[in-house]
Model the fold of this input.
Amino acid sequence: MAPINESSRQFVLLLRRCSVAQIIHVSRRQFIQSTGLGAVLVLGAQIGQNSIFTVARAQSVTSVQPNLFVSIDLDGTVTITCNRSEMGQGVRTGIPMILADELEADWSRVKIWQAPGDETKYDPAGKDGQNTDGSRSTRHHFEIMRELGASARNLLERAAAVEWDVDASEVYAKHHRLYHTSSGRSFDFGELVDAAANLTLLTEGDTSAPRLKHPSEWKYIGKDLPMVDNFDMSTGGAVYGADVPLPGMKIAVIARSPVYRGRVRSFNATEALQVSGVEQVIEIPAMADDTPTEFRALGGVAVIGTNTWSVMEGRSKLEIEWDDGPFTVHDSSTFDNALRESARRGGSVIRRRGDVDEALSTSDSIVESEYFVPYLVHTPMEPPVALVDATVRPVQVWAATQSPNETRQYVAEALGLEKTDVECHITLLGGSFGRKSKPDFACEAAILSEAVGAPVRVQWTREDEVRNGYYHAASAQYIKAGLDASGNVTAWHHSAAWPSMMALWAPDVKAASTLEAGLGLIDLPYNNIPNLQIETGEADAMIRVGWYRSVNNIQHAFATNCFVNELAVAAGKDPLEFMLGLIGDADEMDLTEDGVEEVWNYGDSIDDWPIMPKRLSNVLRTVAQKSGYGKQMADGHGLGLACHRSFHSYVAIAVHVVVRGNGSLHIPQVDVAIDCGRCVNPEGVRKQIEGAVVFGHTIARHGKITTSRGAVEQSNFHDYPLTRIGDTPLDVRVEIVDDYVHLRPCGVGEPGVPPYAPALANAIFSATGKRHRALPLTDDAISI
Amino acid sequence: MSSAGRKAIMVPLTVNGVSHEFDGDPNMPILWYLRDELGLAGTKFGCGMALCGACTVHIDGRAIRACVTPVSAADSKEVTTIEGLDPDGNHPVQRAWRSHNVPQCGYCQSGQIMQAASLLAENPDPSDEEVIDGMQGNICRCGTYQRIFAAVRTAASEV
Done:
């Protein structure tokens, strides 16, 4: 194994931060004492089924745990901790395979253990408190998981050296065994547990410090691995939020106000209580008027009983009179226009280059358009569900949650406890897309569990999920651009308005946030336009606005990619060459030159993850070539392009569409090119992109939430349809561009979504000559 | 009187080869009998209106939506859930699902697999259109349709 330049000092620091130190062959009390001195982190959990602290085993070694993320049993089984929530993005495969690679473990002998919520132990990168959100897991854990794996390998290498009485430099690990270079002797990992148990932490300056493998030595990173949960998921054995039973558990469903922040005025539960299996009906008080919504329980009337069907039946028999509160004014018939007007007004300039007014006044021609994207709701196949036992301390939460530590925080608040009084166990998530980062449903279960004195599972129905969600913000955008006589873009004036998710914390906020504007608006990629102005208008948040897979990138990518296509046509130029000309091939785009003082950049340093126009052009060229862009298309056929940078990744999509007379579509082929920097599991990336295309197709073709007198009008899949197998693209071809594979890993879960809808809209224009500037592009809209 | 409060009638049925006597309200959807009373949690709740297929199980080998089908409809019949499709989890459809690495979140896949198994039992050699028609009622929000389609085709070659 070739040594590479890695500072041993870094490793020692790492070990001090993450190691639970020595080894588990002493009593728990002794163990805690021994680690209290040398390590910041203390082991507080059992790994898998291994009762490593039981009295019976206290005097013998059963496993060695070099750090909180890896444990090795006597039989050689390696258990790797997954500290992130699995919601289909493949994180229980992708994160552990990084560690396993550096450990030189045999993947077939690796088990995955799901860590509970505890950011003091399971957030080794120290960046996001175990909140699985923002396509961050791989990019924030790549380095630390390598280091944790390498340090565990180092422990085994040193143990083997002791056993053979040779220098550690003569020992190397390969595929779950340790080898002595000259003699060829070897040990299985399991045979070294005892010896490793006698080793201590490395100290600074130790010549045996761990070193990372060279990328050429990687055995799993960059290779295709299937999901570790495939067997369970194909046999019904996978455990989701509603699959955990507790003795004495009650089940509850809750009637919530149809209008945001409405209150129960009165209710009659007489009939509900007559339903067999219904035991209690309890009101959950609404928040005080001056309490921000955040992730708190909305309040309502809960029906509690012995089985799910009974409480659903009981709920249907409740008579409730609601005090709707102030938000009945939230009505799509007026709100959508208010957004459009706000977008035209703009007001708050967030990026400025040159002088757009001057440039527009001297332009040869002006093009202006308005774009609209409605509210959307997450609709994971598993509606929100959580089980809480508030009768014990610490309180026990089992939840399908993206954010276990915020779950602990809000559950603790709901019960008047400290966060440390609450433990949160993470089940598999049956999809999420941002919904289950908001733990309101766990708060409801906690409140009810305390009220009835038993564990309570709160089950949301599909209607609850659609009507009482955290909605992707509706948005309007107005763009005006100038062209000179040669068809060059001289000015781009872009203004957008949407209700801000920040209203969850600051209810009166009307201004767009830096974070939201940072999602594809302020970082408008057309770097070669000499005069730019980007601004935002105000909007009222009169519903819970939350984040949804790829967030505001959806509307920003839609408007920018559609409008640039309009400009190309107006300029009489080929859209591909036109886009490439505007994006350019610069190494980096520096927004500070355009007066942007604070670039959110997905919460990461712009130095580590710069905005690189050349990478965007690269994926666009790639997808154009793969899709056969430029070839002659038959009547009714069209090919549309779009590209977008989000979560540091660069994605371009080409959609080939066939538009039929009735507005129905057939999509024979979709090509996608993604540059996500270092790619850990190409198979996982392909799956995320395939899924993102389908997710994007639902946004493009179906997604639309509307309100009437403050109440959401949709309720289930008949009026909020999702893409099905009959209308989905079935030939999605994913090209993982590896030109920048030496750079840091970038996000993958979300970046495939934003470019799809504009690519489809541009394809429809290519096929029909008709522009569509408002989503969704339903059959009716297209046939007009 | 509410439907859930009606007098209980004994319903004999078999679930995954085991005989049961259901003595609750026979209007209870099979989904909740399986999940809440028998502890067979592999069958999932997605919509409650037979719109998504997450709850798909078999009655006498044919796919039904358990969220809207009352227990009374299974009177003296054989119910098969994902847990009972194959004793080792190796039904050709399950094997195909794994070889195509179909699942993402996995939540809808029990229903998808039960639907596909029923489809292939009735039509061992479906055309592409028949596969699409047969799977049209099952939603996958993660968007695994391309792999579902390929897996059904693979399983069809083995059934």
